[in-house]
Design a protein that fits this description.
This protein has one domain (about 5-279): Divalent-metal-dependent TIM barrel enzymes (TIM Barrel, Alpha-Beta Barrel), CATH 3.20.20.150. The two termini are about 15 Å apart. The chain has about 280 residues and is α/β, with parallel strands linked by helices. The protein is built from 9 helices and 12 strands.
Length: about 280
């Protein structure tokens, strides 16, 4: 079981050290399935070696749940095979859209917080879950300007998660980024989410580029206020897997493992006593 355990995103940039080294020791790994579906040759062999050693979770980039376009059934068919082949129990996607008029936008754009969008996305999630024969988790995303909002973001997320009967991937850094940029209370925001539906959590670093603007980069160290928000959050949810996201600008493995260790210590302090009490 991965609940209460910490993992890291697997990247080609460090595959050799990852497989042969002794420093970085996650409990599981995560990949974007789009980057590995149909992979052959050398990288297929590497991926198979890695997934023999570590349990795998998947975090998608191109399902585009908020798009008005038809779902990409060719991709979904390949995804279903991939998830079964690698015994992936946890597949998540962003609550965003990345396609329009059959064009990939190569970005994760915010969806208007509107009732018609809620209904649209609920139906798409239900369709995807029925086809994949498993529930998916949707992630709260970072965004830099709200689009035609008619409700609060936490209401938008809650109505979708409850209406689609799916799971929530709670990205704590994204909450921190949005709360800073849009000037709301991150703790209050988290309390208003459907925390009973949290199945997975992400943690990452960000970059402050202006006095009043920070950008979600996945390329920096996690700062203390985000660790503190994570500590607060896991007191409110049941034990789930926790992923450290680092997409580029990689530090030494000792530093990455240090962040994993800090996350794991916070998890242990909050969740191991709960588990012991329950037993």
């Amino acid at each position: 079981m991965l609940n209460g355990k910490t993992g890291i995103g697997f990247r080609k940039d460090f595959e050799e050290d990852f497989l042969t080294g002794t420093i970085l020791k996650p409990y599981f790994i995560e990949v974007a399935p789009e980057n590995w579906i149909d992979m052959g040759g050398y990288w297929k062999k590497i991926f198979d070696k890695v997934t023999e050693r570590y349990p795998l979770t998947c975090h998608g980039l191109s399902l585009s749940l908020g798009s008005p376009d038809e779902l990409d059934w060719d991709f979904l068919k390949k995804l279903k095979v991939f998830l079964k082949q690698y015994k992936v129990q946890l597949y998540s996607e962003h609550l965003s859209y990345a396609k329009c008029d059959n064009a990939h936008l190569y970005d994760l754009l915010p969806i208007p917080f509107r009732e018609d969008a809620v209904k649209h996305i609920i139906e798409r999630i239900k369709t995807v879950q029925d086809f994949l024969e498993q529930k998916i988790a949707i992630e709260n995303v970072s965004y830099y300007t709200p689009v035609a909002a008619e409700m609060e973001e936490y209401t938008f997320i809650s109505e979708i998660v409850n209406g689609a009967d799916c799971r929530l991937l709670l990205d704590v850094n994204n909450v921190y980024v949005n709360s800073f940029n849009h000037k709301y209370d991150a703790h209050d925001f988290i309390k208003r989410l459907p925390l009973d539906k949290v199945a997975y959590m992400h943690m990452a670093g960000h970059l402050q580029v202006e006095e009043d603007l920070i950008i979600d980069t996945h390329a920096e160290n996690i700062i203390d206020p985000v660790f503190d928000l994570f500590d607060y959050t896991i007191q409110l949810v049941k034990p789930v897997p926790v992923l450290l996201e680092r997409d580029y600008n990689f530090p030494e493995f000792e530093q990455l493992q240090g962040e994993l260790n800090r996350l794991q210590k916070i998890c242990n302090n909050a969740w191991i006593p709960q588990h012991a009490a329950a037993n």
